[in-house]
Amino acid sequence: MDSPSSPIRLPASLEASKIHALPAAAYYIADFISEEEEQAILHKVETAPKARWRQLTHRRLQTWPSDLVKDTLLGARPLPAWLEDPVVARILSIPVSESEPNLFASSPHGRPNHVLINEYPPNTGIMPHKDGSAYYPVVCTVSLGSSLCLNLYKSKEDGALDPEPVWRILQEPRSLLVTTADLYSEYLHGIEPISTDVDISEQTIANWSLLRSPSPYQDGLNERQTRTSLTYRDVLKVSKLGNKLRPLFKRL
Ligand SMILES: O=C(O)CCC(=O)C(=O)O
Prior knowledge:
Organism: Parachaetomium inaequale
Order of helices and strands: EHEEEEHEEEEEEHEEEEEH
Main location: nucleus
Bound molecules: 2-oxoglutaric acid
Keywords: Dioxygenase, Iron, Metal-binding, Nucleus, Oxidoreductase
GO molecular function: dioxygenase activity; metal ion binding
Distance between the termini: 34 Å
CATH class: Mainly Beta
Mean pLDDT: 93
Radius of gyration: 18 Å
Family: Belongs to the alkB family.
Helix content: 10-25%
Strand order of the largest sheet: 1-11-8-15-6-3-2
Low-confidence stretches: none
Largest sheet: 7 strands, antiparallel
């Protein structure tokens, strides 16, 4: 049962959680998981076997159930129970509209089959990028531990990245952010490697009206702590052969 101090609040339909400032369907649910669920997931992330972590220069990450090989998930293994429940069940329980029972109703596997876990201590970010062709274009991100801003960028006419973000989305701990369609394919997303998000206001944050509470940001600042994200996606190609090939690849 959820404690009264950290209720979850799911909308009857995603329409109520739509980020209207954005050009394609995107949704934000501030209280998607409870504080107890957040702590339980963080505990599982922190106590995962060391070999699960891949250390990049400034950031470390885990991939579940395994890394992709040539955009393919090898083997039809399920996600571990702690990544399925409560998050996947809850994502699938929310209708998008009257005619669309959930976000993955039309995806190849009908549900997310892959989770990337990224850890961002203060001053850590991720370069602006697109997610590529490996996934169905619905991205569900659960944030844990701390708030930060995700920036959306557009390429200029000459193809170079315009370094000024077009939109900023503030992601609070325990929230779910969903991006789809053009936001996935036409825009880049990234997180600045800074310790404090600045200039936070109703005018600059696309999901301001959907925040759990804007009051911590009245001075326009968000001092970051370590934020961990769970990115749920449906990998289009799954190879059953993978069960035999898996021993050939590291960390699978
Ligand atoms: O941590 C996030 O919110 C973004 C992760 C991301 O950009 C990705 O997985 O491609």
